[in-house]
Design brief:
The complex is a heterodimer of chains A (about 100) and B (about 375).
Chain A (H helix, E strand, L loop, with lengths): L4 H29 L14 H7 L11 H25 L5
Chain B lengths: L2 H34 L4 H18 L23 H20 L6 H17 L6 H33 L8 H38 L11 H16 L3 H10 L5 H20 L6 H16 L6 H29 L3 H24 L28
The chains are: A mainly alpha (about 100), B mainly alpha (about 375).
């Protein structure tokens, strides 16, 4: 029997770094986009309140410091790069 | 039995299996996107179908063995005959339809392996199966996949909620929906480059076994095309029953959770296939959704629903094996036996389809928060009240 414990451990760590990193960076980008804007109403148990307010409100109209904008764009750029790397890994012709 | 007739049956059943594989696995990539409203149901299955179609053409790496080493094939082992593959496919299709009817996500790959195991045991005895490989390639990955994906998704979800102040910062919900669409598409594409190849491999190896094709040659183009269309067609047809279970029954999925779950699934699947520790897509995505529920709030996972899925995973291989063993046994009696199995298989498919019509789940009801079988049937039967 051949159980690849090493592979399993590595699998866990690398997945955690990629998924955790991608989600955190993307979330950070969203947070930076919202700098200077008021928070939305606390989410209700079913999320309905936030959903109504959030739709169509990803506007750039509120005052946002330049550093926040730049930081947000950097975060999204990294997220896009990670996704492109994922596509590169999926498609065998690229390798 | 005429060899050509069996080969034709294998091709037809292979494509049927591919189709069930498609609608069984739509939920893996798209259930959370449909549940959060990031994508309309029809759009979600269309994207998934197109990516599965494309993925099927992208990857030319077709499995070199039908069973991936579960059954001792080739030199020193047994010879896998077209009849065995035929019986194995009958078992896999029946189990896929049964779990679809119950709305349970289960691994189509495991169903196929189970079917082949059952057929091989009837054909050549228990020694035909490499039981160590059954444990290391089916049982242990099934145990680890949901745990690894679940912990990864839990950490990712927790992080997403912390950073965006529980998704109350302006535009966060909407942003997460965009992210979710992209990460779900990645899962779909990865699925397309894997699953259609299994059926291509099964059909091609049947041609080789029957002497219609040389060993070691690539699949015929029409086989690639037919398999790609079958899995894409299955994907587009929806599999709403399973999607509702995955998207609504395990936990109430919100956009941050959906994004974190799909990103975790994509990462886990990609990393696993590159490190040589292949994990079931179905079990990874289910684990991710459970993890995303835990990451949001520890109590928000419905363990009863998850428990039923785990039970289905445990039963998948033996159940498909049993059906395949029965089919294999009947086929071995000759032409009449083969006809009996074909008629029974068609009747079984029709029966599951008819049963599903009594508690239908469509794109319009895919987000209803109720058990697939809990809906009051039109007839007086209360079979679904479990």
């Amino acid at each position: 029997m051949n159980i690849a414990w090493g592979s399993l451990g590595l699998e866990f760590v690398v997945s955690l770094i990629f998924a955790g990193g991608l989600v955190s960076i993307f979330a950070l980008g969203l947070r930076l986009l919202a700098v200077g804007a008021p928070d939305q109403a606390r989410q209700g148990a079913d999320g309905e309140t936030t959903e109504r307010l959030a739709d169509g409100e990803l506007s750039l109209s509120h005052e946002r410091p330049t550093w926040a904008s730049l930081g947000a764009y950097l975060c999204f750029a990294i997220a896009v790069a990670v996704v492109l790397y994922g596509i590169y890994l999926i498609i065998p012709q690229f390798q | 039995m005429d060899a050509l007739a069996i080969v034709i049956l294998v091709v037809v059943l292979g494509l049927v299996f591919d189709f069930t594989n498609g609608f069984h696995d739509t939920a893996n990539a798209m259930a959370t996107s449909v549940a959060t409203g990031a994508l309309k149901p029809r759009v979600a299955v269309l994207i998934s179908a197109v990516l599965n179609l494309g993925g099927a053409f992208l990857s030319t790496e077709v499995a070199a063995t039908v069973s991936g080493g579960i059954v001792k094939e080739g030199q020193g082992g047994i010879e896998i005959t077209p009849v065995m593959i035929f019986a194995g496919l009958v078992g896999a299709i029946m189990w896929n339809l049964a779990t679809w009817y119950l709305g349970l996500p289960s691994s189509s790959t495991h169903a196929l392996f189970g079917g082949l195991i059952g057929a091989a045991i009837v054909g050549s005895g228990f020694n035909a199966v490499d039981w160590a490989n059954v444990i290391s390639k089916i049982a242990l990955p099934a145990l680890f996949a949901p745990i690894v994906a679940g912990v990864v998704a839990m950490v990712a979800t927790y992080s997403a909620y912390m950073i965006t102040k529980r998704a109350t910062s302006r535009g966060a919900e909407r942003g997460f929906r965009y992210g979710q669409t992209v990460s779900a598409s990645l899962v779909s594409l990865a699925h397309g480059t894997n699953d259609a190849q299994k059926t291509m491999g099964v059909i091609t190896l049947t041609f080789v076994a029957a002497g219609y094709q040389h060993s070691g040659t690539a699949p015929q183009f029409w086989v690639i095309l037919a398999c790609a269309l079958a899995i894409a067609g299955g994907t587009y047809s929806g599999g709403w029953r399973i999607m509702r279970t995955v998207g609504k029954r395990i936990t109430e999925v919100t956009p941050p959770q959906g994004f974190a779950a799909e990103a975790s699934s994509a990462a886990t699947i990609l990393v696993s296939s590159h490190l040589g520790f292949p994990l079931s897509t179905t079990q990874v995505t289910t684990g991710s959704i459970v993890g995303s529920g835990l990451g949001k709030r520890l109590a928000s996972v419905r363990w009863g629903a998850f428990g039923r899925m785990v039970a289905a995973w445990v039963v998948t291989v033996p159940a498909a094996a049993l059906v395949a063993a029965l089919a294999s046994f009947i086929v071995s009696t000759g032409v009449i036996g083969t006809v009996v199995v074909v008629v029974a298989a068609v009747a079984g498919m029709a029966a599951f389809w008819m049963l599903s019509r009594r508690h239908p789940v469509t794109k319009d009801t895919v987000n209803d928060d109720e058990d697939v079988l809990a809906r009051k049937p039109a007839t007086a039967s209360v079979e679904g009240a479990k």
